[in-house]
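Two quick folds needed for the group meeting slides. Do the first one here.
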Amino acid sequence: MPGSDQGRPGPHAHPKIDEETLIMPTITHAPASPHAPPVLDLDARLALVDATMSVRLAEAAVAFEVNTAHLPGADPIPHIAETPLPAPAAAPSPYRTPLADLLYRARLRIETDGWCRDAVFDQSGAVCPIRAIRLEARGDRDLAHDACVALLDAIQDQFADAETIPSWNAQQASAGPVLAAFDRAARSQEAR
């Protein structure tokens, strides 16, 4: 019936909104507060910044864990290697000849880095006599070879049955005899 729907709104009709209900009051200035904001001293500001940075770092750590969770074997926090402290300056070599000086430096390396008996080197940085010589020779193969020959001669002067440096080194119980052999070899090369 066409005449019966006149008083009611249709299914798509909107109720009439008064323009006065759409107008909202606008505040042009903040209400005055009875108290001024507190003035923070340096310690209070530093504490505030510290708290803020701690929250940011915690959020960054969580984000990192979330972003790397799908990676197999991913560390939750990457390990940052500490830079090694520079080695203290060694005393000047008491020897004038290059060969005796090399033997002296190799002895110092074993003394500072540690002595390795059954391997060329280990995970702690300890080295065997031959590796100490090669490291201190800094690529001079002839000088390193001559130093190894001089060391073996010094070893065989006291241990006639020693066939090689590694086999003799493996028989030692401590670094003492090894360091003494370096001393004898360096003195012998300096005397030449």
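Then this one, please, same format:
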Amino acid sequence: MDRAGSEGWPFVAAQGRPARAVSSFLITRFGNVPINGRIKQWAATAPPPDHAEILRRWELCNDARTATAGLAFGLLIALTLRRSSGDIAPHAPSSPAFTSPPSSPGQRGDLEGTIQ
């Protein structure tokens, strides 16, 4: 069953949003944070000869994480606005455990009248 075809772009966007948020975190953790550690050492010493390249890599990581975080946030907003406008039906639970409670005590659907 191809849910992307039956649900359209909201389903595809919702599936990609967590991956974009995790990507933003991973870029920060393994891209920006190590470079920040190297840059902090420059305050005590002179910058290395390749400092321009290090700063370029930091900017590249910063641009990538900003883009992934912004895209994840934008998809969240788009999906929220689309759902609130009624274009997407709210998820209906498929389990009978989520049905409404009986209208009176002792009454339980097809068991009605069997409990005395």
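Slide caption for protein two: Residues 51-84 form the longest helix (34 residues).
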